[in-house]
Amino acid sequence: MKNKKFYFLLSTSILPISTISCVYSKNQTNYSSLVDHTFDVSNSKVSNEKKTHNSIIEKLLNAVFKQNQARKVEYLESQKNTIEIEKSFNDLKNEINNELSEKNEIQTLINKIPELRQAAQREKEFNNNPQKAEEINKQIKEYLARIKEFNNKAKSFLDKKLQSLINKNWFYFLNNLNNFEFNFIDFLTINLGTKAQEQPESYKKYLENINKLPPYKSFQFKDSLLQSIFVGEETKELGNITIFYIKKDKMVIRLAVENTDSDEPNINVNPFQWYFGSSLNKSISLQLVSRTYHTGFIHQFTSGMEEFAQDMIINQRYKEPGNMYALLNKEIPNEKNS
Q1: Which segments does the entry list as coiled coil (predicted)?
Q2: How far apart, in Å, do the first and last CA atoms of the chain sit?
């Protein structure tokens, strides 16, 4: 039975992994046999695209595990249990479906808004009925308020559940992106704080514009080959945290390797991937994305908001980025006959 598409996400814990014996330090032959050589960069049979992907994965492995080869092997062994990992992602999807039961109703409202906007415009410009147009616009505002309330609830739920599961299984996730369907939740906006500088007109126009745009359609990659990685500008200000931006087609994944000054760093993956689905620019610059996020979203400088809304979205033709979340979209073997 094929999995149904759901619009919001979930997380469960994988089974605890056993402690690595000191045999690894004594027997390098046995130790080496545990390494999954599918991901070796030196494999001459793989394509250049695969080599690039492998080098990105290896860079993350080195950042997380440093010289602790036993810990690295233990983690890679846990990631070979794909049946258990995929079951966890599938269980989370079911949990999301139960928790966010009104999602289908919200999707109906989203689908109605473009038609209502056209109706309001007709009443105002062609039927000379501004009162009717105002009534329709009021209805649109009510729909948008309900959608925003639902999205906030969904994002809070996904922040807790989805991020935890992806963090535990980031190796599987990044190597199997094509097993996931990416679903739209909202457009990327700056969560302005009390120390935020004045918003430029370009960002105000951006906020107005995204309220008129239809959501991006759900999609699934044909392959999982990552294309580039960039160390975020904000890293130099964070001490023992390294920020990475990773690109796959028109999607950008932001993740943090934390506690880098310790013997056991950990990884934190943003549960919402940024999708430039309408971009007219074939080359998404991770350096530009990093810089605008650093100055506009973190520090909330006017110049950073301007670079995001004017330079990146309009001048560079990246268009409006959407927040997407991943749901496993793969048939689970033990559920075929359920």
Answers
A1: 133-160
A2: 7
CA gap 290, 302 in Å, rounded: 16
Distance CA 273, CA 333 (A): 28
Longest distance between any two alpha carbons in the chain, whole Å: 86
Q: Any idea what DSSP says for residue 271?
A: S
> pLDDT of the chain along its 338 residues, tens only?
444 444 333 333 333 333 333 343 444 444 444 445 544 555 554 689 999 999 999 999 999 998 899 999 999 999 999 999 999 999 999 998 888 888 888 888 888 888 898 899 898 888 888 888 899 999 998 998 898 888 888 888 888 889 999 999 999 999 999 999 999 999 999 988 888 999 999 999 999 999 888 889 889 999 999 999 999 999 999 889 999 999 999 999 999 999 998 888 999 999 999 999 999 998 999 999 999 999 999 999 999 999 999 999 999 999 999 999 999 998 777 654 44
User: What does the DSSP assignment read for 128-152?
Assistant: --HHHHHHHHHHHHHHHHHHHHHHH
Neighbours of 144 (CB within 10 A): 14
In a 13 Å sphere around the CA of 22, the CA atoms on its Cβ side amount to 0
Say which DSSP state 123 is in.
H
Structure tokens at 274: 């940024």
CA–CA gap between residue 137 and residue 264 (Å, rounded): 54
- Number of H-type helices and E-type strands within the chain: 11, 7
The secondary structure element, H or E, covering residue 326 is strand 322-328
Q: Is 109 left (phi over 0), alpha (psi -120 to 50) or beta?
A: alpha
